[in-house]
Each structure stands twice: as C-alpha cells, then as structure tokens.
Amino acid sequence: MGDVNRDRVAVLESDDVLVRGVVEASPDAMVLCDDDGRILLANTQVEVLFGHARASLIGRPIEVLLPERFRHAHLGHRADYRARPSTRAMGEGTDLFGLRRDGREFPVEIALSPLARGGDRYTIATVRDVSTRRAREAAERAVRHSLDLAHDGVVLVGFDTGVVAYVNEGFRELTGYGLSDLAGVHLHEVCPRLDADAARALIAPVLAGLEASAVITTVLRRKDRRDVMIEALVQCPVDEHGTRHHYIAVLRDIDE
To answer: Residue 121: exposed, middle, or buried by beta-carbon count in 10 A (0-12, 13-18, 19+)?
Structure first.
C-alpha cells in the first residue's frame, strides 16, 4: 500500500472513529474505497462473506471482489459514480454477483454512499448476500407456475386483512376477473357470504388446531355478477413462530 493510502487510512482512523464504528457494527459487509477504487477499510462481515482476511484487501482495487467478467465494465461504472456521486443502489434492474476467495460466485445487492473527509472523497459500499432470498423467490415462482397449471381456483387471502394476495389462473377463469381487477379486493367482494367473521366461524376447527383443513360450501360472485356455488378446501398455515399470515383456499365450481 502506497504512502498516500496510508495517509488516508490514518486520517480515517484518527478523525473518523464513528465512521469506523458504524462500518464494523454493520450486519452487512461494508468496504470503504478511495476515489480510485482502492479498498481502505473492510469490516468483519467482508471476511465472513468473501473469505478474504481484511488486511489482505487493503490497497487492492474493489474489483477483486467481483467475478472476472464484470471487472472491466465496473471500471466504467466507477468513473460514472465518481462524476455523479450519490447515495443509491448499484446496478438497479441488473443481477449483481460477488466473488468469494475460493472462486464461488453469489448474488448480491450493493448500496453506495459518498463520503468526503480532509479534502478527499471516498465511497462506502454495503454488500448484502441475497442467495437465500433469490432461492426463495425461485421456489415461489415454481410453486405459482404449478398452481397456474391447476384446473381448480387457488386464492391466497390475508389472515387479518381479508384482502386477496394471490390468485392462480384457475381462479381467474372461475371468476372472470383479471389480475388488475383483484388488486386490493376483499374476499367478501367475490364471496359475498364470507365476511371475516363468517369465514372464521366456518374454519374454527382449523384455527383451533383441531383440523388441518376445512371444506366449506358457499357462493362465489363472478365479475359478470352471476353467482355460482363452490366448494372450497381451506387451510390456514402457521409460520415457524406460530403466526398465521394467510388463508389458502382451493375452489371448485359445483354448480352443475
């Protein structure tokens, strides 16, 4: 590390104890770079996330934490940011990846913040591993795709709000509604006999933990105002904390 970098680190260590404290206390990986993209500070989470010892990163270009295929383009991104520094997310609308010391890549979100001290400009980059969230989102997309292939209607309704959160293609065919029609709609608007109290009364054994599901028969009102009789299999799953967030109902037209 050159003398200029050493001087800059010394300034940060002596005059910006609070900055160092914030960086170290962050639950996310954080690095502080100079105006040329060289790493001056890194917190413990950088070691955890990337597998590099912090001391080995000081003075190296930030691109060392990126997969090789992104490094050249990142030089241009750094120049753009240097010209127009601001607090913002990096690469909005694009997939970003970090590179671990062992060569493994992982999806990340990165937030950038400018910092000026002693006449010099710095950038704080906050890096978050989103591998778990991306995997969960992929699983949810797969589940929704499977539900859209089902002939029966499937609806997800907020436990406390009674507002429709998700419907599959079968539900839209059954009711005649499009997705935009159902945004923010309460369940009783499409099932007029099922207000919040009536719905809870019908599935009381499920809410009491006595049954895993309940089968109820009720009226569904289509978009064209025609009422049809449906049979609904209703579940109300709990999360790992024992909290209920949604009703899940599988609907079948039994009018015929």
So the answer is: middle
Does residue 112 sit in helix, strand or coil?
strand
**Max CA distance (Å), the chain:** 84
Distance, in Å, from the CA atom of 91 to the CA atom of 43, rounded to the nearest integer, reads 22
Number of other residues whose CB lies within 10 A of the CB of residue 127: 22
Span 154-192, pLDDT tens digits: 888 888 888 888 888 888 888 898 878 887 888 888 888
- How many C-beta atoms surround the C-beta of residue 193 within 10 A? 15
Give the pTM: 0.57
179 φ/ψ angles, rounded to the nearest 5 degrees: -60, -40
Average pLDDT rounded to a whole number, residues 79-97: 84
Token pair in block for residue 201: 């009364």
Q: Where are the alpha helices (DSSP H) in the chain?
A: 3-15, 17-25, 44-50, 54-57, 68-83, 131-149, 169-175, 179-182, 187-190, 196-202, 204-207
